[in-house]
Specification:
The complex is a heterodimer of chains A (384) and B (348).
Chain A lengths: L3 H13 L5 H8 L1 H28 L1 E6 L2 E6 L3 H8 L3 H4 L1 E2 L5 H23 L4 H24 L5 E2 L1 H27 L6 H9 L6 H11 L8 H6 L11 H29 L3 H9 L4 H28 L4 H6 L11 H10 L3 H34 L1
Antiparallel strand pairs in A: 1-2, 3-4
Chain B lengths: L4 H9 L9 H28 L4 H5 L15 H9 L3 H31 L4 E2 H20 L4 H18 L7 E2 L1 H10 L5 H14 L6 H25 L3 H9 L4 H12 L1 H17 L2 H6 L7 H12 L3 H21 L1 H14 L1
Antiparallel strand pairs in B: 1-2
Helix pairs in contact in B: 2-16, 4-16, 5-10, 5-13, 6-7, 8-10, 10-13, 10-17, 11-12, 13-17, 15-16
The chains are: A mainly alpha (384), B mainly alpha (348).
Amino acid sequence: MRTHLPMTAIADKVNDDPPRLGWAEWLDRRSGRIMVMPAVIVLLCFAIFPLIISAYLSLSRFALAPGGFKLRFIGLANFRKLLSGSQQYHLLGTFGAMGAIRWILLAAVAVGLLFLLARYLRRRPTVLGTLGCLLTAAVAMGLATVAVVASAPGGVPGTIVNTLLYVVVGVAVQFGLGLGLALLCGRPIRGRNLFRVLFFIPLMVTPVGIAYTFRMLADMQKGPFAPILRAFGVSEWSWATEAWSARLMVLIGDTWQWTPFMFIVLLAAIENQPRDQVEAARLDGAGSWQVFRDITWPAIAPVAATVVLIRLIEAFKIVDLPNVLTGGGPGLATESMTLHSFIAWRTQDLGGSAAVGYILLFVSTVACVSFFNFVVRPARRLET
Amino acid sequence: MSVEPRSRMRRLFEPTTLEEQAPAAKAVTYTLLVLWSLVVLVPLYWVLITSFKGPGEVDNGPFYIPFVDFTPSFDAWNFMLVENNTIGPYLNSVVVALASTVLAVLVGALAAYALVRIRFQVKIAAIALFLVLLIVVIVAVTTFGAPWEIAVVAAIALYLIGLFTLVGRTRLHVGNNDIEFWIISNRIMPPIVAVLPIYVMFQQLHLLDTQVALIATYTAVNLPIVVWLTRDFFAGIPLDLEESAQIDGASKFRVFFTIALPLVRSGLVATFLLVLILAWNEYLLALFLSNAKAQTMPVLVSAQNTTRGPQWWNMSVLIVVMIAPVVVISAILQKHIARGLLIGAVKG
């Protein structure tokens, strides 16, 4: 305390000194605002203004006119066209015939959502929280219905279903693989650092490059696996002409790129788990599975939930892989919503393009916020 | 002492010490890890050797090892780098990625520092007024054809009047956490929603297909990440150094540049690398905003498909020159980049 005293005295004296440049002091008092201002201006120019203009675009029809273009306000017609009109096949897909199994599946989803809702309402619900839950449940039910109906026999999934497939299946597979590799690499073995560096690389490779590389690898005549395929007699067949094999290729490319992200973060979390607890459990004769379930998993759950959230945010934006790998084909089979919007823009349907973008914004925001509220938050509470 | 076969079998599955793994488990671990290493390396290897092939080597079936089953040549490299203009897009990519990363890190770190150290209170009424005026201006200009200069000036005047009369009487305000959340949440927005108006904006400014347009857009897109990561680095440094400097009369800017920034150097390096690679790989925005002059590498590579058909050897050269720097950077500086990712994921 005593050492600080003289310093404060000097400081007081300095602060009392009146001759300080007026503008410098003015600047210093507003320094907080000045520091934040550039970031706010940049985001206003490149996020908020564009969002508002996009909203306006999505509500109007764009047409080229002599000497420029013309925008005509048409209300929600663009959205109506996408959700129930002539473009429904593109966004939602063509609906197939529902069999008994699909009805049961849908009913199961509905019951599950109702159960979760009821569980939330039994604990002290707030008005805002209830509204959020209802919105989440409604969106989840709608998406599940579209996915089930469009994938029924005779149906053709649209871009929203494809995007959901990339998000749900892709992220799940990447999480599983990443966790598995992290658990393997977290063991006391030699060469861990080499594997770590090696496994990290794909994350940083340009997606466009990955797309072409996988096209080369999967080439049925000239690719490295062609002799094996020829041995099985499937060299005439091409993955690019069938919907599910084309989707699988996109998923493989995406998984190759993003598994490292899950791996590297989960590995760090595993290395931070309480080592003494693990050793104590081992001494007591606990098996690997028990150690994982009772010690490792609770310790890494918050990080795991956050990592999946980050991945979800980025997964909804997928465009480069399907565009280069398959061009969205065959038909619509691999087209993501961002690609859908881009194609609409190229055909000068600016209103439709903006509407698709807004639907994507809505779906991804609801999904990410719900995931944060219902998974990430509880997982973080687990830790404390 | 002789070992019975049964117990030798058992020893295969039991660890000798707690730290060690049983030999069988170890073998399985290594097998799986090596398998995944192959999954990672085979695509990269294939691109690399394809870039040294010619039409003959590619079309006549797969050849795997240079000098053994085919003779490598530099024809494709020569064609792409010397005869074709690959250098232009490459330089564009370098300039755009570097400039936008420097800007994003500078602007983002400033904002993050201020949000960590200085308390903000922004009136909700001020934000609402701003948004309402903004929408009015956009509708007035686009639907009713009002001249935009007059509309903007009128809106600013109205905003200032409102700020000094109405807004001062309201109480509701947002704090640092809300501002931070708003900045970071911009990352959730899919770029496709914003890119159309950005395209029109640069068209009006006659900046379409220039490096400036790409640099500005990339700065904005990566800004949320920078704020998100650096705020935790700044929050982690002790206050007393900065306080004593401030007491000695240093301005907040001086404190930021001479004390706070050097203290979070390693965190800044991590953020810088991560953002640099994101900017280097960006595809969708470049597709919209650049055409010929400002074309970046990802766009050039994706354009190969339509113009030349599957000329794998040339394409491989492009892919190799595009991903080689990234692979080298991430292999050498893996620890730094991973640190950036970790901070983001752990603190969230």
